[in-house]
Amino acid sequence: MKLMMDQLVKGFQNRKFPVTLVCVGNRRKEQNMIKLMMSFNWGASGISTSMWKGVPLRDVLKRCEIYSKKHGALNVCFEGAEHLPRGGRSKYGTNIKKELAMDPAQDIILAYMQNRELLTLDHGFPVRIIIPGFIGGRMVKWLKRIIVTTKEFDNFYHYRDNKVLPSHVDSELANAKAWWYKPEYVINELNINSVITTPCHKEILPINSWTT
């Protein structure tokens, strides 16, 4: 499916609303202090809120006349344009269920503007997917292809990222026993959580900084 940005702007009704994006690796540093994890060592700053504007994914898929669930349309896959070093230099990709993609209550959009300006390269120009309530890893930047398939996307990063495996499973066991492919350990929706930013962990505050 190839759609130019001007077609998105002129051919569909646009939506605009604020969304807070959170990386699933947010606060991973705190976990690493207990047991070293695979992936990032970020604090509590992997989060941001912006005003996003784009067209509903549902409207685009309907225009393309995708198959029904009965005829095999089960997954909507998103693939970015960039080549990444892992997985044989695979492009980043992931998918969501077709029912979710077609649900009008989900507000999933193909975004081309952020805070009243066209997306910058860092934030996914020309188009990225925005899925409110989901982890940032599902919101593919530099979106190049949308594919509706029967099976889950076989992309390396769809299976190897954004999973929470049991504490006894290390990378060696995960590879040997195919834990990456168990659907019960996938992370999609993210619960609201809070964090104290000041004082930070182990920070010592001088007594004279307190005022009455």
Can you characterise this structure?
This protein has helices at residues 5-11, 28-34, 57-63, 86-89, 98-101, 156-160, 171-176, and strands at 15-22, 47-56, 75-83, 91-97, 109-114, 117-118, 128-130, 143-149. With 212 residues, the chain is α+β, with helices and mostly antiparallel strands. Strands 1, 2, 5, 6 and 7 form a five-stranded antiparallel sheet that branches. Strands 4-3-8 form a three-stranded antiparallel sheet. The protein starts with a helix and ends in a 36-residue tail after the last helix. The model has no long low-confidence stretch (mean pLDDT 87).
Draw up the topology in text.
Elements: H1 5-11, E1 15-22, H2 28-34, E2 47-56, H3 57-63, E3 75-83, H4 86-89, E4 91-97, H5 98-101, E5 109-114, E6 117-118, E7 128-130, E8 143-149, H6 156-160, H7 171-176
Antiparallel strand pairs: 1-2, 2-5, 3-4, 3-8, 5-6, 5-7
